[in-house]
Amino acid sequence: MFGSLGFTELILILFIVLIIFGAGKLPQLGEGVGKAIKGFKKSVHEADVIEAEAQAAQQQMAAASQQATPNPSVQAPASAEQPAAPVHLASRG
Fold first, then answer.
1. Residue 29's closest CA among 39, 18, 40, 15?
2. What is the 3-state secondary structure (H, E, C) of the chain?
3. Residue 78 pLDDT > 90, yes or no?
4. What band does 1 get if pLDDT is binned at 50, 70 and 90?
5. Which of 22, 72, 80, 86 is buried most deeply by CB count within 10 Å?
6. Radius of gyration over alpha carbons of the chain, in Å?
7. Every domain of the chain and the residues it spans
8. For residues 40 and 86, what is the distance between their CA atoms, to the nearest angstrom?
9. Which of 37, 18, 19 is nearest to 27 (CA)?
10. Do residues 59 and 51 make contact, with C-beta atoms less than 8 angstroms apart?
């Protein structure tokens, strides 16, 4: 679980934490760590839900745009001769 940390190393680390923070602060420290982990898991879950909703909305928009776009093979062919737009040249003088 902790890679190369053995049981004795974990006991030594816990003993040092007990000396630094004291017995009275350990419950508060554990509560703070627990709340932080819970908040992190909640935010990760909410991010996944938001991402799934965004993907679903994107798929719905793509499907709607495909249905709204008429099939090009059904359209009448455009004439080859279309009048050119008039070009206005403004002379400065």
1. 18
2. CCCCCCHHHHHHHHHHHHHHHCCCCHHHHHHHHHHHHHHHHHHHHHHHHHHHHHHHHHHHHHHHHHHHCCCCCCCCCCCCCCCCCCCCCCCCC
3. no
4. low
5. 22
6. 34
7. 7-68
8. 64
9. 18
10. no
Q: Which two tokens stand for residue 70?
A: 């008429």
Greater confidence, 72 or 46? Answer: 46
**For the whole model, what pTM was predicted?**
0.44
Cβ atoms within 10 Å, residue 5: 11
**CA-angle at 71, arms to 69 and 73, nearest 5°:** 150
